[in-house]
Amino acid sequence: MSRTTDILFTSLAPAVWGSTYLVTTEALPAGHPVTLAALRALPAGLLLLALTRCLPPRAWLGRAFLLGSLNFALFWVLLFVAAYRLPGGVAATLGSLQAMMVILMARGWLGTPIRAGAVAAAATGALGVALLLIDPDSALDPMGIAAGLGGAASMAAGTVLSRKWQPPVSSLSFTAWQLTAGGLILLPLALLLEPPLPPLSASNLAGLAWLGLVGAAATYAIWFRGVARLEPGAVSMLGMMSPVTAVILGWVWLGQSLSAVQAVGAAIVLGAVWAGQRCNRGRSGAGQVGVA
Q1: What's the main place this protein lives (predicted)?
Q2: What is the 3 state secondary structure string of the chain?
Q3: Which pLDDT score, from 0 to 100, does residue 287 have?
Q4: Residue ranges per structural domain of the chain
Q5: What percent of the chain is predicted at pLDDT more than 70?
């Protein structure tokens, strides 16, 4: 596939992740963030393991659990904490700083050069997300801010290390390893920290199926495929598609208003994502890394 096709295909993942807020608020029981994260990760991971029939070799177990923690367990828990303690716009804006973090981490771990245009695109994208989502009267909770920044850093580190550590298996198998590991980390935490789930309705089960099968298994396989093929900074910029999708779904599905400022913010985000793909484009063969 061409680089443009890879970018468009990879962008499907964060576009689908934009539905997470809608599904969580409209179709899942409240007050069980760790349990729901475990139910999103572990069944999806086990299903992919059954489909691929590819278990990680012993030498890869430590890496699989570290990546599963960074990309799923730690990231999702901090994401929920930020969502509970901050207005959604503030939490999403903090999450958009992930693109800047990836640029810096890729410099240290992969030796990827820092390009001024890429930094400018990441900063502009974060500004666009702020215009798209932040209410001027938003309250700022210190613990929520710390969780939001920690979640962005966790996903950024997971993205860069997923590029650095490329196992000789398909992206589907690589996703299966990480989802299963993340789910195994989350499961005992859910049992220790949260009460049992109430009886689940058909709507609850449909929501979990969407988040697990589509929002985790399918989309993360697409995401890790993109991580292996594209520059880390270019991939991380695509993550800004998620809040744009979330706002559009809220407007279409929930009848929420869409102001002129939000429309400008969405346009800025899309422009920054486009610019980020051009600015992060390396020379042919640059940035290719194997198992380290």
Answers
A1: membrane
A2: CCHHHHHHHHHHHHHHHCCHHHHHHHHCCCCCHHHHHHHHHHHHHHHHHHHHCCCCCHHHHHHHHHHHHHHHHHHHHHHHHHHHHCCHHHHHHHHHCHHHHHHHHHHHHHCCCCCHHHHHHHHHHHHHHHHHHCCCCCCCCHHHHHHHHHHHHHHHHHHHHHHHCCCCCCHHHHHHHHHHHHHHHHHHHHHHHCCCCCCCCHHHHHHHHHHHHHHHHHHHHHHHHHHHHCCHHHHHHHCCHHHHHHHHHHHHHCCCCCCHHHHHHHHHHHHHHHHHHHHCCCCCCCCCCCCC
A3: 39
A4: 3-279
A5: 94
